[in-house]
Amino acid sequence: MARPVSRLALEGVRKRFGETTALDGVDLEARDGELLVVVGPSGCGKSTLLRCVAGLEAVDAGTIRIGERDVTAVRPAERNVSMVFQSYALFPHLTVRENIAFGLVVREEPKTVVRERVAEASKLVGVEELLERRPYELSGGERQRVALGRALVRRPDAFLLDEPLSNLDAGTRVQMRTELRRLHREIGSTMVHVTHDQVEALTLGDRIAVLDAGRVRQVGTPDEVYSEPADLFVARFLGTPAMNVLASEAARPFLEIPAGTLVGIRPEHVRLAGEGVPARVDLVEVAGSDAYVFLDSDLVARVASDARPSEGAEVRVAFDRKGLHLFHEASGRRVPGP
Amino acid sequence: MRAGERRWGGWRQPAGIAVTVAFLLPLWFMLSGSLREPGQPPPRAPELIPRPLSVTSYDRAFDLVDLGLHTVNSLLVAAVTVPIAVLVASLAGFAFLLVAGRARAILVGLSFAALMIPITALLVPRFTMFRWLGLIDTWVPLIAPALLGLSPFYVLLFYWSFRRLPPELLEAARLEGMSPFSMWRRVAMPLVRPVTIAIALLAFIASWGNFIEPLIYLFDPDLYTLPLGLRSLETLDRTNYPVLLAGAVVATVPVVLAFAIAQRYFLHEDRGAGWLGR
Is the ipTM of this complex over 0.85? Predict the structure, then answer.
């Protein structure tokens, strides 16, 4: 299916709700054909960002462009974007076929075009067998597919996905994540996917934008954002368990760092080796092949499950130097090195 | 079974039967009374089944008053009033939903205020207005309130029903380019069908049972609605009360039929969990 590809850009976008600032000068670009994942904690403004792009919320300042068009003041329907809502927003009184065809019927497309496009979209999302059912007769995953089908059928310039996987059970979520990735590869359209789930962001996105309190903290590939977090917020937000962060005093047994800085190290870079600083194991959490070891020195280490120490054991702790990150204590910004 | 259900479960059936009997008993006495031979002294005690059973009072009721014509008149008035009332009330309720925060609060507040005004306070101003317009002795004064949704209560009921719909449904429709009117017609209304039917039924009952307004506005007996016709039977002496009750049965049957037809839509509207995607 040939799809239009389109760049999507926000320039200095601000949005307030009364006294609350939802978006505070957001500059962000989703490149042509890119799957950009916007990730952040609840209430950081990510859904507002998407709604502003869709035109469901008017921005207070800034510009939104889709392709080369400035759509800041354009009505939602004329922006030619499709949105998949967290609750799927399927029309319960319509069949799956009617739901998928909805946008085309509203635009009074010829019946033959509607029939062809519905067949095409339903095949793409794998709901051909469900076309005569109603949404309340479908499982969560099936509803999700129908919502995607409805978004696809209109061949929009860009897709906006507002936490579309968050209502699914864990198994279906993983399956749908893979299918979403496959779908994006097949249609090649620009997609902006909003989620609070860092695993979803890291596995799904071509690039990730980390949002906090209405500001973009960092944009980059999943590797970049994970391996070189721009600040302490990004460092702590991405990764499970969160990155260990130590002040200079606490870090001294392991290494010397400049005054006014903090050192961060991810749990997988904390080694429980034969030599190093002595520590006692407080707690061990087993998560399949990995185990998280919580030490009395407020550090967490990630080790292979079959090599985990027992609770209460005395161990020696060392840092893998290539996994160290330095941050300014005051600003939280990353310091190159160490 | 939850604790609350356990506590009340045993009482539900007898309580339900008691309420049903309380409501059915007057209807039964109306029906049984209408089947009594007219011209006889009234029974000393309540009579569940009269002896002998007779339908003479029905013949007499139709002979004394043109109940057929009045029934048709009432049906015609209701047939115009009810759709207009449902249309206007639902459109107004949907408009409330689309209006932004503060203006919406003012509109809802005004509707409540309007709801508090007793209908009797409006009779004189309305009569003056319709007389000035030259519409006395027509059905227009009976139908005209439907142009305002018949009652602010119906507007508020629609507004509350629309407010229960997930907002994303309307946002999805907006993204597809639907106008507010299309959203009302193609998304909102199909999703509040039980409420629409309930309001239509309430509007029908209000129109059907309307006595005071026909009494004020109608003078030509050919335009009389059924409640006015029934009033004529009230003047009969006590031995002929079966004739009045026969008229009452004729007046009640359409309401019962309307409820019987409509109730399955709003009492058995069960499409399973997640009907609204929640």
Answer: no
